[in-house]
Amino acid sequence: MQTTTAIKAGNAPDLLSGILSVQVRNEDKITKQDRIYCQNQQEELYKTLDQIAGWYNIFKAEADKYEGSIKFKYEENGSNTVRSYHDHYNKEKEDYTHHEFKPFQIMNELVCKNHSAVQNFINRIIGYFNNTYNVSVESPEVDEKTLPMGFRPVYSTYVDVVIEHLGGKSFRDTAEDELIKRFLQTVRPSCWSKVKPELKKDKIIFPDIVTWDSIHYEYHKEYDFEYESDRKVSQFCEGIAFGADDVLCGSIGMIMGLDTRNVDISRWYDLTTTNALNIKFYAKGRIDVRFKDSEAAESCFKRLRLDEITLREN
Q1: What is the pTM of this model?
Q2: Most buried pick, 39, 49, 128, 273, via CB within 10 A?
């Protein structure tokens, strides 16, 4: 009654209306296809959670029968802790109850499955938007110790997380900003470097990008990407594709004929992009990218904000 009175006396209805309007606006920022995907995922999750809960309730009813003979307690998430399990099994008993199946361990397994299903749902919703719109929203982690059995997440909660990540920008603008940030982290000179990316007519020269596997070279005389260089070159290509062709789908796969375990540093590799034509690797880790003309090279250079890179002072 106190709560009802407070709502009538104050401005809570206006606040509630504001909250609802925010949710509606967030829903409006995703497409019908997005909503269908999220709704389908939620429906499928609920089927699984209902199945898990059904089994859990059956075993819980069995576990409750042991109250008084076995000391146990339920945790916040529905799992149980048996306190005197060892003593129970080592008592000399006249009956055979110590041979009976006890449901406690299976109940705890069901609690784990409940948590993993909910976490998987969250990861799928967030992952859908990341993969569809090329953004990098971090997936919230659910605390297994506090997630209760019977909890039913709603997809709109995680749509709100996505929209909050955008910070008022569109998906496209956010994806571009994140791509450029990744690219600049990839090509930014180290603190001891005396060179930075350089625009030369129809080429852009990037120093110190690739690290080679020295052991592989020693034994096979081949240039093999060292660990993590594949990812770094893929992020590099992602930036080049965006800077050259204004697309967000670039990857190491756009380098035609590249074998990362045996890179030919004597040749130019063709690219699948339109305005960036070729790429060349060098023994000291440098990468050159050649464009169709100097105007395309300069446009890419500026779009990727390479003109804003400065060397760090010693």
Answers
A1: 0.82
A2: 273
